[in-house]
Amino acid sequence: MMNVLDAQDVLKTYFGYDQFRSGQTELIEMALNQENALGIMPTGGGKSICYQIPGLLLDGTAIIISPLISLMKDQVDSLEQIGIHATYINSTLSKEDYMNRMHLIREGVFNFVYVAPERFMSEHFLSLMKQIDVSFLAFDEAHCISQWGHDFRPSYRSIIPVLNELDHIPFKLGLTATATPEVIQDIQSLLTIDHNHVINTGFKRDNLHFHLVKGQDKDRFILDFIEKHKQESGIIYAPTRKLVDSVHGLLLQKGYKAAHYHAGLSEDIRRREQSKFINDEKTIMVATNAFGMGIDKSNVRFVIHHSLPMNIEAYYQEAGRAGRDGEPSDCILLFSGQDTQLQKFLIEQSGLSDEKKVQEYKKLQAMVNYCHTENCLSAYMLDYFNDPNRYGECGHCTNCTHTDEKIDRTQDAQMILSCVMRMDQKFGAGLTAKVLKGSKDQKVKQFRFDHLSTYGLMRNKTEKEITQFIHFLVAEGYLTTGDSKFPTLQLTAKAAAVLKGERAVYMRQVTIQEADASDYDTK
Ligand code: ADP
Fold it and tell me: Which of 247, 409, 436, 449 has the fewest CB atoms found within 10 Å of its own CB?
C-alpha cells in the first residue's frame, strides 16, 4: 500500500528535496488514494511534483494534458534527465516518430505521456487510451477548461464528453495558478471533484512588488527603467502587435538587447526570439499576451505592462511570470485613461455572445478599479480571487509605500475641464489638447475652437504633456471617455466639483521603490 512516506522517499531520491511544500502533501495523498482532486497554487509553487510523484508511485502511465505544446519537450527532457521515462505526443512530430512513440506507449514504457487536448479528438489515440493501463489524467493549466476562465480553450473542454468512454481511468487531477471562485466551481463540476478535494494554497506571492504608474510618458518611463536595470531580465507586455513592434524598435535603437514576440511573426522567428530570451542572450522580451504561458524562466526580474490588461486574471498571470525563483521582482503597470477604450474595443470586436460580453465588461471594470484603488494593490487582487489567505497589506506596492508628496494640479485640471465643457463634450483628448495648446490645426479652425476662451490657455506646455494630463484626469475619474466607438471626453460629478473650486486635484509623486533583497529580507 502506497503512503506518504514512499512519496517522501521519491521526493528526496528523484528531486533532491527534503520536505513537501504547502498543498503538495494533501494533493499527493489524494492522488495515491486514487481520488479526484484540484490543486490551486501560485506560479512556482510546485504543481508539477503533485502529479509527478503519484505518477512514479502508481502502476501504469500517467497522461498529462497540457494546452501548451511548446512546454512539453522541456518537461519531458527534465524528467528524462533524472531517469524518469517520459514522452510527448503533439502535432510537431513526424508520422514516423508519432507511430514509434505510440508503439512504446502501448508497450507501457513510459511513466508519463504529455499530450495536447486536441489529441483526444483522434480515434487512433483514443483507442490506444482504452487499451493501456492509465494511472490517471492530469489537467495542467486546468483553468483553460472553464469558459469563465480568461484563457478558455474549447479543445480542452471537448475532452469532457470523451471521458465517458475512458471510465476505466481511476481518477483525475486538475492544477492551476489562476482561478476565480466561478472557475474553481466550473472545474469541480466538469471533473467531478468534491469540495473537500480542492486544495487552495492561495495565490499570494510575497516577492512580487506591484507598482502602478499613471499619467507618464510610457516610452520615457520604460527607457529610464531599463537603463537602471541593464543587467536584468524582464518582459514588457503591450496590447497590440503594432505597439510591440514600436517599443521593440525603440529599445533596439537605444542599443538594448531586446527580443519580440507576437502572433504576426512567423513561427520560426517566434521560436528563435523566445529561446534567445530564455537563454539570456537577449535580456528583454517585448510581447503581446501571446507570449508566456508555460514559459519557465526563473530569473525574470520585472514585468512591465505598457497598457491596461483586459482583466485581473490575465494581469496576475502575466505579471506573475516575474520572480519564479522567489527573488524580489517588480511588476509595473503603466496606466493611462485611454487604455480602457482599447480594451472596450477588443471586447466589442471579440465576436462573443452578449452575455459573455457583459461578463468581460465586468472584469474589465475590476481591472480599471485596480488602477483607482488607494488600498494595497496585492490585497486588492487577492480579494478579487477570494484568496483564502488574505493577509492584509503587502507593504511594498505603490499604495503601501507612497509618500504623501503630491503636486497640486487643480489649475491645470480646471483649464482642461472647462475646455472639454466648451467643446460640448463631443471630442477626444487629441483635439482638446490642440485647442488648449492654441494649435492652428485645420480641424480646430473648422469647428471655430480658436474662438473659445480656452484656446491657447496651456500654450506653455507641449501637446503631449497636455494629452498625458488629460489621460491622468480620465484615470482619476474626472473625465470619462463615454461608451461610443469614438472616445469623447465627458465630465463627471467629480469634475463639476473641481470646476466650482470645491475640490483640488493632486498628482502623486510616483517613485518606484524597487524590489531589492534587503527590502525583502525584512518581510
Ligand atoms: P509551478 O507550480 O509553477 O508549476 P513548478 O512545478 O515548476 O511550479 O515548481 C517550481 C520550482 O519549485 C521547481 O524548480 C521545483 O523543482 C521546485 N519545487 C517543487 N516542490 C518543491 C519542494 N517540495 N521543495 C523545494 N523545491 C520544490
Answer: 409
